[in-house]
TrEMBL record:
Keywords: DNA-binding, Transcription, Transcription regulation. This is LysR family transcriptional regulator. It comes from Vibrio owensii. GO terms for molecular function: DNA binding; DNA-binding transcription factor activity. SUPFAM superfamilies: Periplasmic binding protein-like II (SSF53850), Winged helix' DNA-binding domain (SSF46785).
Length: 294
């Protein structure tokens, strides 16, 4: 008979993708961990892991089994948590996928408030699969969430601005209309503007669509910002990423009555009913910080 403890050992191996790291976390011998996984595979008559001398990865069956083991572990943890003191202090590690550098200030404040919580942050502007990346929560900027199996809480909106450095703008003609941007060098975010199209709206609601070839195309917002600060062109970036540079005059806004489309930002997670207290605490905290995304 397969025991819950053995399933949790396998889940730890799948999470760490390492017998050694799993053994260290569980404080048992590496040989014992390997023995437990082999016994599981024999009992299930299914290979759960691809093993080589240098790497360890899940088979398709292993990934499905890991998802169920993790779910069972979460149920057990939730059951234990519900019987504990209602005034328990949130603790443990939250694995979060977030756009690079987007939430450092907010997450730092969160950690000061909850010192027993640790964060394992995956910096990525792409849309990480929550199961494959083993994240508890992901922040996603999107007008539509494709995966209906996920839960999502809208935190606010990205309000993009067009900006450049004073040094760069001193070398080009004055920009007074959206069409004037076509004569400027564009530093583009591949994920956001992969179609090379600029869609802008003015304060009167008039929409302008332009097709422009970028001078530089990158895959993270932080890299876009660095190229712009090196006086290589203009960019369209979320306003919260430029607050400090705008305040100090390192960047200036172009066409202040024009903005790119507003895109909702969501906190996305897998299962609401079984959410650990630490993750629920983070989501509640982020919901109170909607102004930070504007």
């Amino acid at each position: 008979m397969i025991s819950l403890d053995d399933m949790m050992v396998f889940a730890k191996v799948a999470e760490k993708q390492s017998f050694t790291q799993a053994a260290d976390d569980l404080d048992i011998g590496k040989a014992r961990v390997s023995q437990i996984v082999s016994k599981l595979e024999q009992a299930l008559n299914t290979r759960l892991l691809h093993r080589t001398t240098r790497s360890l990865s899940l088979t398709d069956a292993g990934l499905r089994y890991y998802e169920k083991c993790k779910l069972i572990g979460d149920i057990a943890s939730e059951a234990n948590a519900e019987t504990q003191d209602a005034n328990q202090i949130p603790s443990g590690t939250i694995r979060i996928s977030t756009p690079s550098s987007a939430l450092v200030d907010i997450l730092s404040e969160f950690l000061h408030l909850y010192p027993k919580i640790k964060l394992d942050i995956i910096e990525s502007d792409s849309y990480s699969n929550l199961i494959e990346s083993r994240c508890d929560i992901a922040l996603r900027a999107s007008s539509a969430l494709e995966d209906s199996s996920l839960y999502a809480v809208r935190l606010g909106y990205f309000r993009d601005m067009i900006c450049a450095t004073p040094t760069y703008l001193s070398k080009v003609e004055t920009v007074s209309t959206p069409e004037d941007l076509l004569s400027l060098d564009w530093i583009s975010h591949h994920i956001v503007h992969g179609d090379k199209q600029l869609t802008m709206t003015n304060n009167q609601g008039q929409v302008t669509r332009l097709v422009h070839s970028p001078k530089v195309q990158v895959r993270t917002a932080a890299t876009v910002k660095e190229f712009v600060l090196n006086h290589l062109g203009f960019a369209i970036m979320p306003s919260f990423m430029m607050k400090e540079e705008l305040a100090h005059g390192d960047l200036v806004r172009i066409l202040p009555d024009v903005h790119d489309l507003e895109i909702p930002i969501y906190a996305v997670y897998q299962e609401k009913a079984l959410m650990p207290l630490r993750v629920r605490t983070l989501i509640d905290f982020l919901k109170q910080k909607t102004d930070a995304f504007e």
